[in-house]
Design goal:
four-stranded antiparallel β-sheet; 16 strands; 13 helices; 60s Ribosomal Protein L30, Chain: A; alpha+beta
């Protein structure tokens, strides 16, 4: 994930926690190409309307938020190529009287098309969250005569949509009926089952295709049933056009989905899930080698990064840490620390009472960054590939739990 996307995702997570006392938090979405003077005029009209709010504190806070946005608009340059999003409002910090005006100006990852002004007790984040959604979807159909699984891969997620069983009888002795008649009955039952699989696949995938989200379909399973399913008219004709390939598999349940993803890796190389999987599997292969290039542990990884020896850095998105630079007010002393989110406040408070070990002067925090953003900057300087992984995937959970959220692959042994 690019640094900009990670930063936006982190900011939205923080903004979700912000709550106003009343309907006094303002969300403003300005479309690409919209004139700033028109927006300012609308906000001045809203300022006049806010004078009619009965609650004195709400009226005061809404007007303060509008004024804050108007000040930010003066700093923007036209034309707005993608538009801009501004959030502003009084956020209570603890008890009554602790409200503080907070204003956020965000450049969206994609152009905004609709002008939105909304006043509520929370910020309106849905349009920005939609930009971060993985839009490309791949359909998966695993089928044999006994059962079928319909699934999809979306970004980093595998979703099992439907599981079906056929009830088609297996081989048995003819008994009182002819073997040929029994064979016809079995074939009819199998035909009806494949029709049902095709119908369910159409229900799941055709709407996605019509929304231009479905990029392709992968079909797999043991035996020849999968080929029969694809070659005959069991699948909707529009869906048949985007079947990318068929795969011989041992399973038709969730293990079969994972088996198919392994075999289809070259076709899905741009899917986030496959990028994660490839990086983590490469790390694990290096880990088990006697002379492997695996690297893990915060100190070891930071050392390799500083030396320019790290080829790939894998970091869990759940790694909630901060990089801190501490300086002295009096001399050139400085030090860097990496602290977890829960220890950040304690460090900030303790620094105020600490003395410089070099001259005895006062220490202060000169810089503070989200640790992953700091790592991203270092990776860019060193030519290191950064892969962020989600704890929701099997590979991401391995990095978070087994390696404390950080793992790397070296360019050479150090």
């Amino acid at each position: 994930m690019a640094q900009e996307t990670y930063s936006l995702k982190k900011l939205l997570k923080e903004l979700k926690t912000k709550k106003g006392k009343g309907t006094e938090l303002i969300s403003l979405y300005i479309p690409a190409g919209r004139r700033i003077s028109d927006v300012a005029q609308h906000l001045r009209e809203e300022m006049s309307q806010a004078a009619n709010i009965k609650s004195k504190s709400t009226r005061k806070n809404v007007q303060a938020a509008i004024e804050s946005i108007l000040q930010r608009l003066k700093l923007l340059k036209e034309p707005l190529e993608k538009g801009v999003v501004i959030f502003a409002g009084m956020i209570p910090k603890s008890g009554p009287g602790t409200e503080k005006m907070e204003t956020y100006v965000i450049e969206p990852p994609e152009p905004i098309n609709t002008y939105i002004y909304r006043c509520s007790s929370e910020f309106y984040l849905e349009p920005l969250e939609e930009f971060l959604e993985d839009k490309d979807v791949y359909g998966i159909i695993l089928v044999d005569r006994n059962e079928a699984t319909i699934a999809m891969v979306k970004g980093r997620q595998i979703q099992i949509l439907k599981r079906l069983t056929s009830g088609v009888p297996g081989k048995f002795k003819a008994g009182g009926q002819s073997a040929r008649r029994l064979e016809r009955l079995i074939d009819l039952a199998a035909h009806e089952f494949l029709q049902r699989v095709g119908q369910k696949a159409t229900e799941q995938f055709l709407p996605l295709l019509q929304e231009k989200k479905l990029k392709g379909i992968l079909v797999g399973g043991p035996g020849n049933t999968k080929l029969e399913f694809v070659n005959k008219d069991y699948l909707h004709h529009e869906l048949k056009k985007i079947v990318l390939d068929t795969f011989d598999l041992c399973y038709t349940e969730e293990w079969g989905v994972r088996e198919l993803l392994e075999k289809a890796a070259p076709l899905l190389k741009d899917v986030e899930l496959m990028k994660e999987r490839e990086a983590v599997q490469r790390f694990l292969k290096e880990l088990i080698k006697d002379d492997g290039l695996a690297c893990y542990g915060e100190k070891e990884i930071m050392r390799a990064l500083e030396m320019g020896a790290l080829d790939t850095l894998i970091v869990s998105e759940e790694l909630e840490k901060y990089w801190i630079k501490i300086k002295c007010n009096n001399c050139d002393y400085e030090e860097e620390k990496i602290v977890t989110k829960d220890k950040l406040k304690k460090l900030e408070d303790s620094i105020k009472n600490q003395e410089c070990p070099k001259c005895g002067g006062a220490l202060y925090i000169a810089d503070k960054k989200d640790f992953i953003e700091y790592l991203s900057e270092l990776c860019e300087m060193c030519g290191t590939k950064l892969v962020t992984v989600s704890s929701e995937t099997e590979e991401g959970a391995t990095i978070l739990k087994g390696f404390k959220g950080m793992a790397g692959i070296l360019r050479y042994k150090i």
